[in-house]
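Posting for a labmate who doesn't have an account.
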Amino acid sequence: MRFLFLPAGVRDEIEREARRGYPYEVCGLLLGHVDATRVDVRRTLLGRNIHSTPRTAFELDPASVLAALDGAKGLDVVGFFHSHPDRPAWPSAADDQGAWEGAVTVISAVDVHGACATRGFFFEAGGFHELLAR
């Protein structure tokens, strides 16, 4: 079992971007550290969604990944975040197909009124497992 440490400021930043990008999915990278029991997210790096249907899916611009690697400053890329406009903060079938083994996924559901719900998941053994927030 892993715990997710997502500081309020980082969660606020993800939710702010989800609201700003509505009704399209926004996406980016999570920077921090992971060990056997803990995922510690310290920063985000907003990416550009280059998917052909950005209302229901995301594809992170590869240049965003390269920028994250250049700007990580001692932090590891631990995973990704994205929004789900008008859908639950739960991994979709598309999220399953694009997931990386050992990566964290933070999903922020956002609706037309700007309400957000944010949850974190860890992908291992071919499936998503919800992370417990700390």
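Reply:
Got it, the structure tokens are right above this. The longest strand covers residues 76-85.
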